[in-house]
User: What shape does this take?
Amino acid sequence: MPESMAPSKAATAAEQGPGLALSVHGVDLRFGGIHALKDVSFRAKAGEITAVIGPNGAGKTSVFNTISGFYRPNAGSVHLGDEDITRVAVHARAQRGLARTFQNIALFHGLSVLENIKLGGHHTMRASVFSALTYSRAMREQELALREEVERRVIDFLELDHIRHQSVDVLPYGLQKRVELARALAMRPRVLMLDEPVAGMNREETEDMARFILDVQEEWGVTVLLVEHDMSMVMDISSHVVVLNFGQVIAQGTPAEVRAHPQVIEAYLGAEGSKT
Assistant: This one.
């Protein structure tokens, strides 16, 4: 991307606020007789990339759903910055700067790339219900401002300009995943949660997505929390790694520390993990 097109770190941070720390404290989650999470605690530092890894069924999605508000924990708490958001509604968490993508693409088919991305920013609009129903001048002005912001800050940033008017239905899988990331960025996140952002991608698509995630963290100052199975990408871009197994944190630390941890090698990476 040409430097003249890329939003500066100062500009993007000023428009959405700096990244916030995200903390999980002693979270327990039960579904009947199933103990999905057991005293899970970790912290994603502000402005850094933290990864949550573990075998299938380890509790990664349960952690994500608890943080984003889809699940209410039986014990423990979730903090966004200095605020306890454990009992805050999902939409209110978004208003506080928490945005996420999903493992399975959740785009609105039949709509264009631009229309899908704009939907991510609608919670930032301040028009009244009456203004929205009548499509008043105030509403039109806010729609135009949202479109300008999306095109200036998000579409150019993620190099989607050439497909902005295409229907998402006709896009290849890798570009659909990038559009979903763009929609999350349109929410002006201070914490961005990415659920398996490179699942199903080929190597070239994975490298592109990893580059965009690093750019978001470095240039926008956003805190990134991701769940991912691609260990090569996780170890390359993360500052901190949290490892779950059977609903419990078995290790956390830098990628090098986690890679060498005996329990991680046994539970997830395999014996060859200590050599990679």
